[in-house]
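Fold sample X.
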Amino acid sequence: MLSIKIGKKVTEETSRDIEVAVIGFVDIKSQIDKLNLKLKEHKDILIKKSETILEDSEASTVTLSVGEDNVNVKFDWDIKVNDAIKLKKIVGERFEDLVSTKTVFTPGAKLKTMVLDDDGLRECLSVKAKAPAFKIVK
């Protein structure tokens, strides 16, 4: 029997295809979670070995191979400017060449609610439906 909960209201109906989909989703998601844990173990081992291999190298990428199986491990950095004034003092007039500046306008929660009811606002904003989110509830 399929239980449908919206808010606090629960209804039941028979829908074999939905029941199979719910059971299948929970089963497959559980398998994926277990595989992701195992994958993380392998990644940790590969990262350690790759760090050791690249220790004295200026390279940031290494490929590890066993027969036909190849894994490329690439190290990268997320670099953000925390103190633009101090950075500008250090690099001087090169600052404009080394740093890009951008202005980002992000709608607040209230505007997000308003735009769903006001077509006039939609002329100023891009509104796209997100893909539905799924989670297993215990």
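Fold sample Y, listed below.
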Amino acid sequence: MKIKFFTVTETSVYSVSDERDKKGRPIVEKIALRGKSKIPVGGRLTGGKFVGIMQNLVLYNQDHSKSGGIQRPDEIDSSFEGGHTSYIIALFLNKDEAMACSGSENLKMFDPRWRKQTEEVLRVIGNKHHPVFILPRNKKLGIHY
């Protein structure tokens, strides 16, 4: 089952998919700008084959093989990180909800107003071994999934 969700950050809204482009990179595309950013609308994050969901989205490559699965984003050397977003406000399965959130005021990292939607996305991803989306091992996100 293909997974697609929307991430609202401090500066932008991204469409995030576990589909990969011709170079094997996950598709993380900016669809709206709500502040200043180096990446324009329509631009994509590059520089990795995994999407780590931490305080921000970070693309990365595994820096060494590890028995038992893919390295989690909190375990890698930062020199293996690629593109990343600003802090995550919330995750959504529904684009309209994401766009409405991005127009809200007084946004905070993992804003409690959208906790339910964020946890729903994390449950869809699961904390097992997803081939693209990787969550931190010790639930550093401060939310339950």
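Sample Y note: The chain is about 15% helix and 30% strand.
Also: The helical segments are 95-102, 115-125.
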